[in-house]
Amino acid sequence: MASTEHAPVQPNSREAVFMLIKEGKGPNGQGVAGTYDNWSKYDEDHNDYNGPSFVVSALSELTNRKDVSILDCGSGTGLIGEKLKSEGFTNISALDASQESLKLAAKKGVYKKLSCVEVGKKKMPFDDNEFDVLVASGCVLPTHISPDALREWVSIVKPGGFILFSIRRVFLELIEGEETYYSKEFVEHLNQVLEELEKTKKAEVIFKRDCPNYLCGWHSYLYGIKVVQ
Ligand SMILES: C[S@@+](CC[C@H](N)C(=O)[O-])C[C@H]1O[C@@H](n2cnc3c(N)ncnc32)[C@H](O)[C@@H]1O
């Protein structure tokens, strides 16, 4: 007799992250750090990942300097850092909540400093105006990094510097068949923080770019923010 039960979610997989996003906990009840700690084959599961090219080409449009200090926030295993380095950027640091992901990132030899911090739980270990640029690919989303982090990011990036962050379209728009990922609350929260930063003249949204096939054929939006003060 065919079973109607679903196969259990493998804890070391993309499905585990989807479960975290939808249910607030990973398959073994872990939070965000534990869920990514278990995903040891993250790089192998990202053969179809064009995010690094989108992020790095957007950054190259904004600056000619290769020595800008860059924080890769939510760096994971370092795929963005690797692409930055291959395009000549030389001054890159990483921060992530998952110690196991950071161990994989460290092996790539692209980051000068790696910090294990869960954004939102603990203050980030950086001074005001420490970085020229902050990039965050695929980590501002429900259960991951809250839009509230933008306020802290604006303070650690120098005036005139840039923040680039990407969000999968399913989190921001109702898309047939993918309704479970959409969160009206999350969208309103993100827009409210962005409006507040613009109104208080701390930052300016310079673009929101549609990036088709960011990952696995899925669209993402890449936001470009210029820090004003
Ligand atoms: C989808 S992965 C993206 C990793 C990397 N940026 C990339 O492009 O491959 C999301 C990453 O964000 C990290 N993350 C999620 N929430 C976080 C938080 N609150 N603080 C720090 N890192 C977080 C996870 O540990 C994970 O490594």
- Measured by DSSP, the beta-strand proportion falls in 15-25%
Task: List cofactors, ions and other ligands.
Answer: S-adenosylmethionine
Helix segment tally:
7
Q: Quick one: how many beta strands?
A: 7
Radius of gyration (CA) equals 17 Å
The major sheet is characterized as:
7 strands, mixed
> What oligomeric state is this?
single chain
Q: Which CATH-level-2 architecture of the largest domain? A: 3-Layer(aba) Sandwich
Order of helices and strands: HHHEHEHEEHEHEE
Q: How many domains make up the 3D coordinates?
A: 2
Uncertain runs with pLDDT below 50, 5 residues or more? Answer: none
Please explain how this structure is put together.
- By secondary structure, the chain is an alpha/beta fold.
- It has 2 domains: 7-39, no CATH class; 48-227, Vaccinia Virus protein VP39 (Rossmann fold, 3-Layer(aba) Sandwich).
- It is built from 7 helices and 7 strands; from the N terminus they run H-H-H-E-H-E-H-E-E-H-E-H-E-E.
- The protein has helices spanning 14-23, 32-37, 51-62, 79-86, 99-107, 149-156, 184-199; strands at 69-73, 91-96, 113-116, 131-137, 157-168, 203-215, 218-227.
- The chain has a 7-stranded mixed β-sheet with strand order 3-2-1-4-5-7-6, sandwiched between helices.
- Helix 6 links the parallel strand 4 (131-137) and strand 5 (157-168).
- It binds S-adenosylmethionine (SAM).
- The site of S-adenosylmethionine has 20 residues, from helix 2 and helix 4.
